[in-house]
Design a protein that fits this description.
heterotrimer, A alpha/beta, B alpha+beta, C mainly alpha, B: alpha+beta, Alpha-Beta Plaits, three-stranded mixed β-sheet, two-stranded antiparallel sheet, 6 helices, about 20% helix, C: mainly alpha, Formate dehydrogenase/DMSO reductase fold, about 0% strand, globular, binds ligand MGD, binds iron/sulfur cluster, binds molybdenum atom, signal (chain A), dimethyl sulfoxide reductase activity (chain A)
């Protein structure tokens, strides 16, 4: 494919034929002086190596940032020599046709692909599990034989429930390279364990199911900011976590330009979202959004700024009038807020100020702003729910949208994170999973340690009272939650190190990650750029496009997951069922005919032709994006929610029931209240006992320099977006720290050595160690528990493996630590 | 001759993502410590602890993405003893590697850290406005990379007439070199002086 | 991390020694003592050559060095290189006695001009520490100090000269030079702190002040040795020279350390 010149220059100024240049050369130009230059010019004049033939391919970055961006690898001599991105069309935001420009991570793909730590050959652990020096290369066939034998043995001995496909989000779209290949294989073999929910928004999904009857992603699309008066972002950092040039960051910029709505961000950090779109930042202590939301509700109630009509017709349990039959007295939402409930504490701004750190006057003013703005776009990110009582944070914030009647209207929203509307992204058919008993994703390590001991009422097992087996086989394709991304790495290492528990760990990755080091068999995977596929938008894009990718030569012995699963299917006697007689190319053609062309009729008759263009798009008017809950809003009787009452449940009898029947723990905050409310938790701001030794609240925000642990080891990125601990100058000063100093960050679970970024962009009392950095245990020095000290700055060396009460989700932003100068 | 082209940088949109830096680095195979484009994180304001233990603050932050500005009064050119750094026929300030002696005088004289020494090649290097792309009618790599569409370029007179020359802290006052950089200033931005302390990420540039 | 620009330190200090010595040869009328004058010119030349070598080490593409003479129209660095070449040539011709002693003033003036040119290289608009009159004062100071110290030393080796006014003038010019050289930092710091916010340069400023104190103390010690050497003991004079040279090297390290630009 030859590069089309004008294709590349769609910036608005370039279109004005401003470039009428002759040859611009950096070599020539005779300049001033004494005319000596000719005499001294080295001969031959600056010979250039003959340029290689360049080819531009189409590919995409498919990691889990919620978008997928178009990458245009420029290939010469079989190798990627540079990466370009999508500049093929002029931006037309209103019609949903705009460039899907990659962020710096995607742009650094070449560096990542050819890095030293890329996996080259299949390996087997011959030493103790977790010993980096115990790996030796083995042939692909041997690796596949051993995996197949172990799979068979575990299925036969312990049942299909013992096979876990661990949460792994490294490949988010791409029909042939997503995790479906292994699902499909396992479903042909009788099923497998797949944790429920995820690490992203477990508490949000669980909480909002009780409030709105729908598990998350239910707010208005961000495009509705174009129609609002005021937008309030609770811990929503779209600029950094939705960074794609074809994604939400760009859409919010556009939408805000239209409405010029005021935008307030509530976050412990002055996030990148504050930089680009916020008119005001309100710093808040982690884990205390429910306290703020309750005080806002208090002001809204006392100043009569509620949508009373809406509360009567659409909501259960706001006050005594709308409580369900048989509910206990004084347990409505309003009772909790006004202090007529069980705790007898009015949730006044004064009360909340002490907890949140936000001045009383600011809380009152914020309530008035929210109450006075019609409509008001209230939205939340997932940082505030990745907390010990995250379910309550997420529900309390959403409740604000309910009491102000913003649900289901243009420019408003139900207070949840935005809904998304990618039309279609092809997947390999996965078949049906016959294993119907599930446990929450986050509890996979418990299931390894003692799966048989996991119950419905204590661990959230669904489909049975108990889980039938321990996990004996782990398949980890494109994931790092085995170690790096899961809570409490030292605890994880301890349990995984016991080979009498899990018998086989297979890791298939592109790089030598922390998880890879804990594999028994380690398989080198091709990267996104090294396989043919059909890719499309991921879960946080609202545009419709399809990419037909062409590959570069796979790195060393790496293989695509589909081909690996075919080989396993062969060995396990299900090859025919698995492939349905199709080659990879035939699967793609099948998808092209049966899925892609019906979705996008303008596609050419053959896949081959589609590949010549690479990226195809379909217009979708921004103003046509649906408003969730609109039908319910317009006619709640005809369109009830999926809650038991069909209404929004500010009081949930189901939660009340759970609180009585579930086995909850003694530690602070392990409670399930029936209304959205503030819960003071272990290692929260109010955990004064733990704070005696570990006084700082630690979060680990999702960082622009990487997507989780993906891209985290790329030196280009690390040089300009290093892994640092964010700390406020006040806390730094108290510890004698200056910008750039190395510190130890520690608590009872572990110790990390890291440089500090002393910045006013984080509030006092809070530090952040951006999550996803590569765990790097240095074996010589040990911490007080004889665990290795992490030199990589991985926050999960410090997080606690303790599940949240309702979702049994990951509270990885709830931690207390101390920071000491080294 | 003055530069025909200027960069445009919309600081109100810039999220400090550094795609522009990395795209340039990738396109020109730059070593780790050489960045033709650099993104400055500017942070200001203060924290106030209230008597009741709550906090108020007026903290603000913004980003500036800066390459070589192909200045009208290029101190680098004036300082270069060999003529390696010179203005070409489009008024772009470029480095002729075949003349550079590696004295680094240009980098001493540029208040934008634009000229950077390439240890592998043993000569000075710098953003040349993607001159060979311009010659083929292609926009610069960095301009096309920006996910926020915060970067652009265009005819100098037009852009400078509209936005003036970048005179925003922590950049140096524009009168020094007359940079051909037009900035749409961020709502938080502070006027350039020589002594602003806003630059928060020197080590990342 | 601090990286010391050794090559430039060597270059500027030794070139200034060279120019200073040329000046003092003339000012003290050393031509009356042709033997010592000869030695002095040889030192002048060698010092210049070593200094020039330092400058060359600073460059990475020697093959391109001839281009460095092409921009004398506007680049002070080109002029510096030209200046060094002219001055070096003159000194060489004097060493070879092709130029006669009567032309000593010419060579001395060329040296003065050279120092002026060298100092202009550091009159960089965007480096406040450098961009002051202190740079000229300091560079002339170093020239006088080192030229003076060398000549004081040479005159101590020759009893004839010891009786003349030469050592006296050398000592005093050396002392004045040291004073000027130590003053550089005051101008530099003043300008830097007025231009760049103190918090941006706090670390460097501290280090500069520490080095400046060391520079001054060593200069003082050098003076004491010089003036205390009542018996004209050559070894003490040599020692004094080495101390003074060491001080000037520290002063120059300090100078390059203060290469802090405004801007980003
Ligand atoms: N403390 C803390 N921990 C967290 C979070 C937090 O906020 N705080 N966030 C959590 C969240 S929300 C999530 S989603 C998880 C994410 O955790 P993971 O799903 O583990 O995501 P990544 O860390 O990005 O790991 C993706 C892996 O895929 C690999 N990979 C990339 N491309 C390919 C490919 O083409 N083929 C193969 N085989 N592998 C590939 C990468 O090398 C990388 O090892 O982390 C969770 N962990
Ligand atoms: N660049 C980048 N983008 C990503 C990812 C990535 O790793 N890197 N990961 C992707 C994935 S899988 C996911 S799940 C999403 C994650 O998206 P989120 O979960 O929304 O991201 P976080 O950074 O954990 O949290 C968002 C913001 O909440 C703030 N915060 C933390 N705790 C609290 C709190 O208690 N209250 C309030 N109000 N704010 C709080 C943080 O400072 C942060 O700015 O991002 C996706 N996008
Ligand atoms: S990490 Fe996300 S935003 Fe960045 S290039 Fe990849 S898909 Fe796009
Ligand atoms: S930015 Fe610096 S290098 Fe570029 S032209 Fe201006 S002075 Fe020269
Ligand atoms: S380093 Fe090269 S380009 Fe820079 S001033 Fe010296 S000779 Fe000129
Ligand atoms: S114009 Fe080209 S060389 Fe200059 S910074 Fe942008 S990409 Fe790099
Ligand atoms: S790519 Fe754009 S948004 Fe990102 S840092 Fe550069 S200018 Fe700013
Ligand atoms: Mo996630």
């Amino acid at each position: 494919m030859k590069k089309q010149k004008t294709d590349q220059s769609h910036s608005k100024l370039t279109r004005r034929q401003l470039l009428k240049l002759g040859t611009v050369s950096c070599v020539a130009a005779s300049f001033g002086g004494l005319g000596l230059e000719r005499a001294f010019r080295p001969l031959p004049a600056n010979a250039q190596p003959k340029p290689l033939e360049e080819k531009i391919l189409t590919s995409a970055c498919l990691n889990n940032c919620g978008s997928s961006c178009v990458l245009k690898p420029v290939v010469a001599d079989g190798k990627v020599i540079r990466i370009e991105t999508d500049n093929a069309i002029p931006d037309n935001w209103e019609e949903g046709l705009f460039q899907i420009r990659a962020c710096p991570r995607g742009r650094s793909m070449r560096r990542q692909m050819y890095a030293e730590n890329r996996l080259k050959k299949p390996m087997k652990q011959f030493g103790k599990r977790g010993d980096p020096s115990g790996f030796k290369p083995i042939p692909w066939d041997q690796a596949l034989d051993e995996i197949a034998a172990s799979l068979k043995k575990c299925i036969d001995t312990y049942g299909n429930e013992s096979i876990l496909s661990i949460y792994a989000s490294g490949v988010q779209t791409g029909m042939m390279q997503r995790r479906e290949a292994f699902y499909r294989l396992m479903n042909l073999l009788g099923g497998f364990a797949l944790g429920r929910s995820d690490y992203s928004s477990a508490q949000n999904q669980a909480g909002l199911t009780y409030l709105y009857g729908q598990a998350g992603y239910s707010g208005n699309p961000v495009t509705e900011i174009a129609n609002t008066k005021l937008a309030v972002f609770f811990g929503l950092n779209t600029t950094e976590t939705r960074m794609s040039g074809g994604g939400l960051q760009f859409e919010i910029l556009k939408a805000k330009q239209i409405s010029n709505a005021r935008l307030i961000v509530i976050d412990p950090r002055y996030s990148e979202t504050c930089v680009t779109v916020a008119d005001e930042w309100i710093p808040i202590r982690p884990g205390t959004d429910a306290a703020l939301a309750s005080a806002l509700a208090y002001v809204l109630i006392t100043e009569n700024m509620l949508d009373n009509e809406f509360l009567k017709t659409h909501v259960q349990g706001f006050d005594a009038d709308t409580m369900p039959e048989g509910a206990p007295e004084n347990s409505a939402y309003k009772d909790y807020i006004m202090g007529t409930g069980y705790d007898k504490i009015a949730k006044t701004p004064e009360w909340a100020a002490q907890i949140t750190g936000i001045p009383v006057a600011r809380i009152i003013q914020l309530a008035r702003e929210i109450g006075g703005a019609k409509p008001c776009f209230i939205s939340q990110g997932w940082g505030l729910q990745r907390q010990a009582a995250g379910e309550m944070s997420t529900m309390s914030v959403a409740a604000l949208a309910t009491v102000t009647g913003n649900v289901g209207i243009h420019g408003g929203g139900n207070g949840d994170r935005d809904a998304y509307y990618p039309g279609f992204s092809p997947r390999l058919p996965r078949g049906d999973n016959k294993v119907s008993i599930t446990f929450p994703t986050f509890l996979w390590l418990r299931a390894v340690e003692n799966g048989k001991g996991m119950t419905a009422t204590r661990d959230g097992v669904k489909g049975a009272d108990k889980y039938p087996t321990d996990i004996k086989f782990i398949w980890n394709y494109a994931g790092n939650t085995l170690v790096n991304q899961h809570s409490d790495i030292n605890e994880t290492r301890r349990i995984l190190g016991d080979k009498s528990k899990c018998e086989m760990i297979v890791v298939m990755d592109t790089h030598d990650t922390a998880s890879a080091q804990w594999a028994d068999i380690l398989l080198p995977s091709t990267s996104y750029l090294e396989q043919t596929d059909i890719v499309g938008p991921s879960y946080a894009m609202n545009i419709d496009w399809l990419g037909f990718t062409t590959p570069v030569t796979p790195y060393e012995q790496s293989r695509p997951v589909y081909e690996v699963c075919v080989e396993l299917a062969k060995r396990l006697g299900v090859e025919k069922e698995f492939t349905e007689g199709k080659t990879r190319e035939q699967w793609l053609e099948w998808s092209y005919e049966t899925q892609c062309r019906p979705f996008m009729p303008e596609l050419p008759p053959t896949l081959e032709e589609a590949r010549k263009v690479g990226v195809w798009r379909k217009a979708k008017l921004r103003s046509d994006l649906p408003i969730p809950f609109k039908a319910f809003r317009d006619d709640p009787q005809a369109n009830p929610l999926k809650t038991p009452s069909g209404k929004i449940e500010l009081f949930s009898p189901a939660l009340l029931e759970l609180s009585k029947t579930w086995e909850l723990n003694k530690f602070k905050g392990d409670v399930i209240p029936p209304t959205p409310q503030y819960v003071s938790t272990w290692e929260g701001y109010e955990d004064t006992e733990t704070k005696k030794l570990f006084p700082l609240q630690l979060i680990g925000h999702h960082y622009k320099g990487r997507t989780h642990s993906h891209y985290a080891s790329v030196d280009w990125l690390l040089a300009v977006m290093p892994q640092n601990l964010w700390i406020n100058p006040i806390d730094a000063k108290a510890r004698g720290l200056r910008h750039g100093d190395t510190v130890k960050v520690l608590n009872k679970r572990g110790e990390v050595h890291i440089k500090v970024k002393v910045t006013k962009r984080i509030m006092p009392g809070v530090v952040s160690m951006p999550q996803g950095a590569w765990y790097n245990p240095e074996s010589k020095n040990l911490d007080q528990n004889k665990n290795p000290i992490d030199q990589g700055g991985c926050v999960n060396t410090l997080t606690l493996y303790r599940a949240s009460p309702l979702a049994k989700g990951n509270p990885q932003h709830t931690n207390l630590v101390e920071v000491v100068k080294l | 001759m003055n530069s025909k082209y200027a960069f445009y940088m919309d600081s109100t949109k810039c999220m400090g993502c550094k795609a522009c830096m990395i795209a340039c680095k990738d396109a020109y195979n730059l070593p780790l410590n050489v960045n033709y484009r650099r993104v400055a994180e500017c942070v200001g304001g203060d924290w106030f602890i209230q008597p009741d233990g709550t906090y108020s603050q007026n903290v603000f932050a913004y980003y500036l993405s800066v390459s070589c500005n192909h200045c009208n009064d290029p101190k680098c050119v004036a300082a270069c003893p060999t003529g390696a750094t010179h203005k070409n026929e489009n008024g772009l300030v470029v480095i002729d590697a075949s003349r550079c002696v590696g004295c680094k005088n240009c980098s001493w004289n540029c208040p934008y850290s634009a000229p950077q020494f390439n240890e592998e090649k043993q000569h000075m290097t710098k953003c040349d406005f993607c001159a060979d792309r311009l010659a083929q009618n292609l926009a610069p790599v960095c301009v096309l990379s920006c996910p926020a569409r915060a970067l652009d370029f265009g005819p100098t007179e037009e852009l400078i007439a509209k936005y003036g020359r970048a005179n925003i802290a922590p950049l140096p006052p524009s009168h020094i070199t007359q940079p051909n950089l037009a900035v749409n200033p961020h709502q938080n931005s502070v006027k350039a002086t020589t002594n602003t302390t806003l630059l928060a990420n020197k080590e990342e540039m | 991390m601090i990286t010391v620009q050794w090559s430039l330190v060597v270059f500027t200090v030794l070139i200034q020694l060279s120019a200073g010595l040329a000046l003092l040869i003339w000012l003290t009328g050393l031509k009356k003592f042709p033997k010592t004058e000869k030695v002095a010119w040889i030192i002048t030349f060698l010092s210049g050559v070593i200094g020039f070598g330092g400058a060359v080490l600073h460059l990475t593409m020697l093959a391109h060095a001839p281009y460095a003479l092409t921009q004398v129209g506007h680049a002070w660095l080109s002029r510096e290189i030209l200046g060094v070449s002219i001055f070096g040539l003159l000194v060489l011709l004097r060493v070879l006695n092709i130029l006669k002693a009567g032309l000593n003033p010419l060579i001395a003036l060329a040296g003065l001009g050279l120092i002026l040119v060298v100092s202009q290289v550091y009159r960089v608009d965007v480096v406040p520490f450098w961009n002051t009159i202190g740079t000229e004062i300091g560079f002339f100071g170093t020239a006088l100090a080192l030229g003076g110290a060398v000549l004081a030393m040479l005159s101590n080796c020759n009893p004839e000269i010891a009786e003349s006014s030469t050592p006296f003038i050398s000592k005093w010019l050396c002392a004045i030079g040291l004073f000027m050289s130590c003053c550089l930092v005051l101008f530099g710091l003043h300008n830097m702190m007025n231009t760049i916010a103190p918090e941006l340069i706090a670390d460097t400023t501290t280090l500069i002040i520490q080095l400046a104190v060391a520079h001054t103390l060593i200069a003082g010690l050098g003076c004491a040795l010089l003036f205390g050497n009542k018996n004209h003991t050559p070894v003490i004079a040599l020692f004094a020279f080495l101390v003074i040279l060491g001080g000037e090297v520290i002063g120059r390290i300090l100078f390059y350390l203060a290469n802090i630009r405004i801007g980003i």
